[in-house]
Amino acid sequence: MSGHASHEEHSHGSVKSYVMGLILSLVLTIIPFGIVMTGALGTLATALIIVATAVAQLLVQLVLFMHMNTKADEGWNFMSFVFTISILVLVIGGSVWIMYNLHQNMMIG
C-alpha cells in the first residue's frame, strides 16, 4: 500500500457533524424565510439578513459537509477555493460598480 493513501488519513465527518450541519442549515434557511414572509423588517435590513445567513450557510456546508479545512493535505483545495471566491468577488463587484456608474451617468434630468 505504499502508493495508495489509507482511509484513516482523510477526515470524514461523523454522524454528529452531519446532524449538526443539517440543523444549522435548516435554521439558517428558516430565519430569512420567516423574515421575508412576515415582512417584519425593512428592505435593507431584510437584504442584509439574507446575505449574512447565506454566507453563514455557505461556511457551514463547506466545513461540515465538504470537510474543507486548512490542514496541510487539504491546503491546495482551500487555496483554490479562496482564489475562486476572490475572482468571483472581483468580477461581480466590478460589474455592479460599472452598472451603478453607468446608471448614475446616464440619468436624464
From TrEMBL:
Where is the protein found, in the record's own terms? Answer: Cell membrane
**Bilayer-spanning residue ranges:** 21-41, 47-66, 78-100
Q: Which GO terms describe its cellular component?
A: cytochrome o ubiquinol oxidase complex; plasma membrane
Chief location: membrane
Output the GO biological process annotations, alphabetical, semicolon-separated: aerobic electron transport chain; electron transport coupled proton transport
What's the domain of life for this entry?
Bacteria
Keyword Membrane present in the record's keywords: the answer is yes
GO molecular function annotations of the record:
cytochrome bo3 ubiquinol oxidase activity; proton transmembrane transporter activity
Per UniProt, what is the membrane topology? Answer: Multi-pass membrane protein
Q: Which UniProt keywords apply?
A: Cell membrane, Electron transport, Membrane, Oxidoreductase, Transmembrane, Transmembrane helix, Transport
Do you know which InterPro entries this protein is assigned to? Cyt_c_oxidase_su4_prok, Cyt_o_ubiqinol_oxidase_su4, Cytochrome_c_oxidase_bac_sub4
* Family per similarity comment: Belongs to the cytochrome c oxidase bacterial subunit 4 family.
Q: Briefly, what is this protein's role?
A: Cytochrome bo(3) ubiquinol terminal oxidase is the component of the aerobic respiratory chain of E.coli that predominates when cells are grown at high aeration. Has proton pump activity across the membrane in addition to electron transfer, pumping 2 protons/electron.
Question: What PANTHER family does the record tag this protein with?
Answer: CYTOCHROME BO(3) UBIQUINOL OXIDASE SUBUNIT 4
Under the subunit heading, UniProt states: Heterooctamer of two A chains, two B chains, two C chains and two D chains.
Instruction: Please report the name of this protein according to its UniProt entry.
Output: Cytochrome bo(3) ubiquinol oxidase subunit 4
